[in-house]
Amino acid sequence: MTMRFEQILAEGVAECSYLLGDDAAHVCAVVDPRPDVDIYLETARRYGLAITHVFETHIHADFLSGARELVERLGGQAKLYVSEEGGAEYGFDHETVKDGDEFTFGSLRLKARFTPGHTPEHMSYFLFDGETETPWGVLSGDAFFVDSVGRPDLLGKEQTEKLAEQLFHTVRDIFMALPDDVIIYPCHGAGSACGPDIGDRMSSTIGYERKFNDYARIEDLDRFKEVILGDAPPVPTHYPRMKKVNAKGPEVLGNLPRIEPMSVERFAAAIEGDAQVLDVRDMMGFGSGHVPGSLNIGAQPELSVWAGWLIDPEKPIFLVLPDDSKVSDVLRLLWRTGFTNFGGYLAGGMNAWREAGREFSQIPQISVHNLKAAEDITPLDVRKPDEWEAGHIPGAQHAFLGELRDKLADLDRSAHYATYCASGFRASIAASILKQHGFKNVRNVPGSWKAWQAAGYAVEET
Fold first, then answer.
1. Global pTM?
2. Active-site residue, selected from the candidate residues 16, 28, 187, 421
3. How far is CA 412 from the centre of its chain?
4. What is the C-alpha separation between 121 and 130, in angstroms, rounded?
5. Alpha-carbon distances of 417 from 361, 377, 445, rounded to whole Å
6. Per residue in 242-261, pLDDT tens?
7. What CATH number was assigned to the domain covering residues 261-355?
8. Is 421 an annotated catalytic residue?
């Protein structure tokens, strides 16, 4: 017998799901699946396991749940388990999990524990060997992270106070009451906005967190509320939408979202007017020439998150790809934050567009060396507020990327701007937004803050 335990990371949204079971009993469970569920089916098949249970720790805000997709793909073999604590309601068939419920997969035993605070209905799953009384691990969902804890402020001000108090007691009375050697397996890693300053490691132990997790070490409720709410990062705009979609039940597609290739002529006709054109090439390719009015978000894992921030899910998306063979990878990343409405993609990409004699726009790139020497260019820092406060280019103006569209009125349309972030990825998104909104003098800074520091140039702190 071998216990099978797989932590599966969806980069970009930094989401950790789990497949766990026993190959002697040939059964397993999946916890918090993402929508592109083939990875669970393939992993179970590789180990000779049947997925019989699919669990959700809570109603997710940051990514599209794949629980219904997975259950449907299994053809009725598995059941979907969710918590109805705190009055949670769902628009799909499910089994209800209560505090103390246990589930057995061969020698592996899961025990549900009610751990509210991040959300009112949140469940964590304690992991046991057989009938032993002490868990060896816990799937902590968004209640407890490496170096952090879940944020309690995603359901509106009217619930934040109560959730913060519940979270304090969840951390103190449940997690900190566990033995030091219990392993923590969270639902998110670094990069997620579901908690402040989540650590880089993919797992931890109670003992380590007891010593080094600043949030878990706070013993006063009022102090805990002050710190957890004060440290909370900006809330991505897609979070409220994802909450509603996941509670109702995402549409089951049975495969990746559908999209059709389009000739230059069809593509050009389709995007006339107020269309969403998303160009997923890298910053250098986009800068050298793009379909006028395009938004640039490179085809990296972060595409999921920034699409969530910046794209309207109600309008069809028209894609420009670096290569037509990348369409499945891009659809997968966009699906993870709920995008399924696609108008089509430009067959042959920008080469076909240029060869057809179509108009294209450009965004110049500027090195940090030329930026430092320029006297008439304002650096525009689009990083998060905490990144800006830790250090920025002298004389720069700050406008966080996620809120940039709301702050365009604060910018001088006659000024010359050079957008920068940590490495240039977000800066190119920002430059494309400025270009969309009629800013004429826009440049992007490849390498951005990392290049500025590497060059040894002066830094200003707030």
1. 0.95
2. 421
3. 32
4. 27
5. 17, 6, 10
6. 999 999 999 999 999 999 99
7. 3.40.250.10
8. yes
